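$ ./design --mode recover --in tokens.txt
reading tokens...
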């Protein structure tokens, strides 16, 4: 599994979004991308994080960023999540787990003593040349977009 660092080339990917449209990181060449990984659609922490990006979406776009959320949920789940919370950005379905593995966020977790594999909450800021400029390991779900705006200052 990859351990990515600031300055590394961001792994490209090909997947489907919540509308069944093919999406690749290469589609965003020349644009800054906020690529955020989250465990599951429509759960309290993931909803808070997505709504934070929604609420500050215009501020992020005005600073030249595209927002892309990635989880291992399917397209149908993503579409329902997008519709329920009026999310204005792309949600990528990584059912094969290729993207979460390439970014090193498919990890062993432990809940109530039970170990299982799942997606670590992590955000990557990728510049227009496809290079990772920032990595946020400790995501504050309610203030995730503000964390990014603070990093950009």
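writing sequence...
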């Amino acid at each position: 599994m990859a351990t990515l660092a600031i300055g590394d080339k961001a792994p490209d990917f090909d997947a489907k979004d919540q509308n069944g449209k093919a999406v690749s990181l290469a589609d965003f060449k020349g644009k800054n991308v906020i690529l955020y990984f989250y465990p599951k659609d429509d759960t309290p922490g993931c909803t808070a994080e997505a709504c934070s990006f929604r609420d500050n979406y215009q501020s992020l776009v005005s600073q030249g960023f595209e927002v892309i959320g990635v989880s291992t949920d399917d397209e149908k789940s993503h579409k329902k999540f997008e519709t329920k919370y009026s999310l204005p950005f792309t949600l990528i379905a990584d059912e094969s787990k290729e993207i979460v593995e390439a970014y090193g966020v498919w990890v062993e977790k432990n809940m109530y003593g039970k170990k299982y594999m799942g997606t670590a909450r992590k955000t990557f800021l990728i510049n227009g040349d496809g290079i990772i400029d920032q990595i946020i390991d400790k995501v504050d779900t309610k203030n995730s977009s503000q964390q990014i705006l603070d990093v950009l200052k």
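exit 0
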